[in-house]
Design a protein that fits this description.
globular, 3-stranded antiparallel β-sheet, 13 strands, 31% helix, alpha+beta, 6 helices, Spore Coat Polysaccharide Biosynthesis Protein SpsA, Chain A, 7-stranded mixed β-sheet, single chain, 208 residues
Amino acid sequence: MKILVAVPCLDMIQTQFVDCLFESMRFNEEYDIQFGASSLVYDTRNQFIDKAIDREYDRILWIDSDMKFDSQTLAYLNQDLDAGYDFVSTLCFKRRPPYTPVVFKTCDMDKTDHGVIIPRSKVYEDYPEDCLFECAAFGFGMVMISVKGLKRIVERYGRLLFCPLTGFGEDLSFCLRAKSAGERLFCDSRAEVGHVGQYTFDSKMFKR
C-alpha cells in the first residue's frame, strides 16, 4: 500500500500539526509525506492529483497544515477505505463562530432564468455521531480517497478537479464534480480532527 500524504500550505505550518504528523506516521513506511506551497491552494491540490496518478499511489491522504489528529484517526480512515469506501472525510469544524462542522447535508447550484449561478449548501449540523454516514460534500481539512476512485472522476472531468466553480471553494468544487460523476461521499464522525487556531476547535466547542 502506497499512501501519498498531501499537505498544501502557504508559508506557515502549525507546530501542533507537525507533532501529530510525525507522531502518527514516522514508523510507517506506507506514508509518503509531501508539502505543496502555493498562493493558490487549488493549484497545489491539482498538482497532487498528478503525483498520485503518475507515481501510482493507492490512496491520497489530504491534510491541511492546521489540523490536530492522532494515529487512531488514520486507522479509522484506512478501515473505511479497506471496506470499499473511496471518499471519506474526518469530522472537522470551522475556527470561527458558530464553529459548525465542515460537512454538508446539501450542496448544489441553481441557475436563474437569466443564467446567473446561485450556489446552495446546507451544513450537516445534526450529523450522526460515532459512525460513517453519507454526505453531499465536505471540506478537505483531512480526507482520504482512493486513487482508483479519483481516476473515475478524472476520466470525466480531467485532472483539474479542484478549480473553483462559481460560488464555491476548491474543496466543494471537487465534491460537486465527484457527485456529478456518480461517486458517493462519506464522513466518519469517529475520526474527529481538531482545527488549530487560538484554540483547538472541535465538537465540544460546536456544542457549547
